[in-house]
Design goal:
- By secondary structure, the chain is an alpha/beta fold.
- It folds into five domains: 100 residues, 3-Layer(aba) Sandwich (GIY-YIG endonuclease), CATH 3.40.1440; 63 residues, Orthogonal Bundle (Arc Repressor Mutant, subunit A), CATH 1.10.10; 177 residues, Rossmann fold (3-Layer(aba) Sandwich), CATH 3.40.50; 179 residues, 3-Layer(aba) Sandwich (Rossmann fold), CATH 3.40.50.300; 97 residues, Alpha-Beta Plaits (2-Layer Sandwich), CATH 3.30.70.
- Helix content is 31%, strand content 23%.
- The protein is built from 20 helices and 32 strands.
- The strands form eight sheets. A seven-stranded parallel beta sheet has the order 11-12-10-13-14-9-15, with helices on both faces. A six-stranded parallel beta sheet has the order 16-28-27-19-26-25, sandwiched between helices.
- Strand 30 and strand 31 form a beta hairpin.
- The mean pLDDT is 92.
- Bound molecules: adenosine-5'-diphosphate and zinc ion (2 copies).
- The site of one zinc ion has 8 residues, from loops.
Length: 735
């Protein structure tokens, strides 16, 4: 038998792959790229992916180990997907083995067989016009089910009152037999008709239909409520008609039962879902439904972008500006950017939708790289909300509200309407302080203050999750004069209950709405109508229709106006616009009041007077002047360590490495600019000191050459075992 080794990608951080001998007795032809194998690695047993085979290796014969097992006969990952994974590993300077982990569901990563997604069920084997002699109504009813439907999952039968014994009885009579099958997604019996599009929607749909069948990136920029989703639905319909599959990516918070229902009730094809609320088996099922082509539409959050779809015809990314499309740990990828690469490979269009596009996407659309389609009017009869800034400078405040704002709330409630009060801060108060000596309750592990919570009473660090009991006397001066300072959603809820004792007040934040079910119940409640006040964080801001909300009050948007992050204003404006978009859907015109200390802030005024697009254009101008993204490309090296000196030193070293490399090899390339290293805004978090080095370059290629050299050198750097570091390419959060 001729000698060969198998090249295996393993889920380890090292930027390389590994040679193994084949499983004893196996031939070179048994191995194909994309199969899973089990390998002994150091002291661990890992599942890896075969990348190929070779007849030579640089590993000495006596160091080569045989693979423990080959798990697949046919490749689990296609050639095309392997090349996408290689692209991703290069782009994010990450191990290809780690990257490939994203392509397969957790159960398969642990070595499970594909068939573990199957569920036991029953299949009719007798013709449906057989007339068996059955005893008892229950047996007859069960047989009736099988006359209507050939394959039924066992769980579906038990949930409708049939027992295992009853099924066995039909099996004994050779009417049905037991099966193990992949559950099929549900299909509605009679799909709802599509809405008649308005002129703008019609035009948008036609433009995008023309792009089907080839790669094209499109931005659908449409104000909230302009009917973007309706356009998605009808475009997907065209894709389905062509026999293709559609992939729809939505923000984590946007994947609500309402959204899903809107898709499910329109199509007579199976729709599969992939989101974080599923268990591992359900994820495997959804993945297989997509991969085997059973599901024709796949709706999912960020990681669904990796799901294999053999007949992919279109990718839609809704709310493309949303932060949840960027993974913030491990492989720090952007699902939006990857969706573009994937669409390019598959030669299909990718549609990015948003009312408030990111400056990156807007720049690409304005420069003509993307097709730019706009919806400027609200769909149906809905009117845009009237926005207004309310200065609270030197104003008397009542529990966090200016007086005229309270009168406005009262007026809307008197009209039997609903009011939404937005405050992006959970808890009762952001600060507990001593009036006597100025002591403040701080986290021991972070450079941060503890948030006071009332339900149940405790102090909580929102950065490291540390919790401790509330103190009632000052630990420094023993004064009992310790008080809560500032407003959180709990306190606003309490104040509103006192101010409007006859009106129901509902708080919506991560503390009150922990499960999808709780979320659902709450929304059903709100949709019943009747005057009420909703108090909430950004959980309230996205994707929901509140037809009876006619007033939105934004309590405190000032923090974002002066952020140290160059994207601070962009993100604030997106959030304000999203929250404002909740008002005045349907036929109720809405008002939006924004309380601020900075009523003459030029960018805030631009947003209020001329809208997000106008503000975005002015922010783009600033970015150009400062040569910030999207006019340059950026990466960030972050380090963290309990030893402050070591953390700092690692970033210092990185700077030197880059400077040396640039001196030697950087000639003729676009200039690479280094900023830092400097401490993160919150220098210490969870006991670790954090430093960062920012790296800019107007050209992607030059930047990536430098990053490649940097990562290789850092991986072989000695003496920094205690320091955790990572490289973030195209960081979204730069604090
Ligand atoms: P967006 O996704 O842009 O926020 P939606 O697609 O959710 O907007 O539409 C907002 C509301 O307008 C929804 O209630 C939707 O049913 C309605 N709508 C959308 N398009 C039309 C249309 N052509 N005619 C009537 N109502 C529409
Ligand atoms: Zn004190
Ligand atoms: Zn903390």
């Amino acid at each position: 038998m001729s000698f060969f080794v198998v090249d295996v990608a393993l889920p380890v951080p090292l930027l390389r792959t590994f040679d193994y001998l084949p499983v004893e007795g196996e031939q070179q032809s048994d191995y194909q790229a994309g199969q899973r194998v089990r390998a002994d690695f150091g002291r661990q047993l890992l599942t890896g992916i075969v990348l190929g085979t070779r007849t030579t290796t640089e590993v000495p014969q006596n160091k080569l180990k045989p693979l423990l097992a080959r798990l697949d006969d046919v490749p689990l990952i296609s050639e095309g997907d392997l090349s996408l994974a290689r692209w991703m590993a290069d782009y994010y300077h990450h191990s290809v083995g780690d990257v490939l982990e994203h392509w397969i569901p957790a159960m398969l990563r642990r070595g499970a067989a594909l068939t573990e997604a199957n569920e036991s069920g029953w299949q009719r084997i007798a013709p449906n016009d057989s007339d068996p002699v059955l005893r008892g109504d229950k047996q007859k009813a069960l047989w009736q089910r099988f006359i209507e439907q050939t394959d039924i999952l066992h769980s579906q039968l038990t949930s409708t009152g049939f027992s295992l014994a009853q099924c066995r009885r039909l099996a004994e009579l050779e009417l049905i037999r037991e099966t193990h099958q992949l559950p099929q997604p549900l299909i509605p019996a009679t799909p709802k008709p599509f809405l008649t599009l308005n002129g703008e929607q019609e035009k948008a749909l036609t433009l995008m239909k023309n792009e089907l069948g080839k790669f094209r990136a499109c931005l659908l920029e449409g104000v909230t409520g302009s009917g973007k989703t309706e356009v998605y639905l009808q475009l997907i319909d065209a894709v389905i008609q062509q026999g293709k599959q559609a992939l729809v990516l939505v923000p984590e918070i946007g994947l609500t039962p309402q959204t899903v229902q809107r898709f499910q009730e329109r199509f007579s094809v199976p729709v599969a879902l992939l989101h974080s609320g599923l268990n591992d088996r359900e994820r495997l099922q959804g993945w297989r439904q997509a991969k085997e082509g059973v599901a024709r539409i796949l709706i999912g959050t960020r990681s669904a972008v990796f799901t294999p779809l053999p007949d992919l015809g279109l990718i839609i990314l809704d709310e493309e500006h949303d932060g949840s499309f960027k993974q913030q740990d491990g492989l720090r990828y952007s699902a939006r950017d990857f969706a573009l690469v994937r669409a390019h490979q598959a030669k299909v269009p990718v549609l990015l939708g948003s009312a408030t596009p990111s400056l990156e996407t807007l720049h690409n659309a304005l420069s003509g790289r993307y097709l730019h389609v706009k919806l400027t009017q609200r769909a149906g009869n809905a009117k845009p909300p009237g926005m207004k800034l309310h200065s609270i400078l030197h104003q008397p405040m009542i529990s966090g509200f200016a007086e005229p704002v309270l009168s406005a709330i009262k007026q809307h409630l008197d009209n039997q309407k609903q009011v939404l009060v937005f405050l992006n801060r959970r808890g009762f108060a952001p600060l507990l302080a001593c009036r006597h000596c100025g002591w403040m309750a701080e986290c021991r592990r972070c450079d941060a203050r503890l948030t006071l919570h009332q339900y149940p009473p405790h102090l909580h660090c929102h950065h490291c999750d540390h919790q401790q009991p509330v103190v009632h006397t000052c630990p420094e001066c023993h004064s009992p004069d310790v008080e809560a300072v500032g407003q959180g959603t709990e306190r606003i809820e309490e104040s509103l209950c006192e101010l409007f004792p006859l009106t129901p007040v509902r708080r919506v934040d991560r503390d009150t709405v922990r499960t999808k079910q709780a979320f659902d119940e709450l929304f059903n409640d709100i949709h019943q109508g009747g005057s009420c006040i909703l108090v909430g964080t950004q959980m309230l801001a996205k994707g929901h229709h509140f037809p009876d909300v006619t007033l939105v009050v934004i309590l405190d948007s000032d923090a974002g106006l002066f952020s140290a992050d160059f994207r601070g204003m962009e993100h604030s404006a997106q959030l304000i616009e999203q929250v404002a978009g909740r008002a005045g859907r349907a036929d109720n015109p809405g008002d939006v009041w924004i309380q601020t200390l900075y009523a003459d802030h030029p960018q805030l005024n631009l947003l209020i007077d001329n809208g997000y697009h106008a503000l975005a254009l002015s922010m783009l101008k600033e970015r150009l002047e400062q040569q910030l993204p999207p006019y340059s490309h950026m990466a960030m090296l972050r380090s963290e360590c309990e030893d402050k000196r070591l953390s700092r030193q690692l970033t210092d070293q990185a700077r030197h490495m880059l400077q040396d490399w640039l001196r030697q090899y950087g000639k003729g390339n676009a200039p690479v600019t280094l900023l830092g290293p400097f401490p993160a805004i919150m220098e210490r978090r969870n006991g670790r000191f954090r430093y960062q080095l920012q790296i800019f370059c107007p050209e992607r290629k030059s930047l990536h050459q430098a990053l490649d050299a940097l990562v290789k050198q850092l991986q072989s750097l000695k003496g920094f075992n205690k320091v955790r570091w990572h490289l973030d390419v195209d960081p979204v959060d730069t604090l």
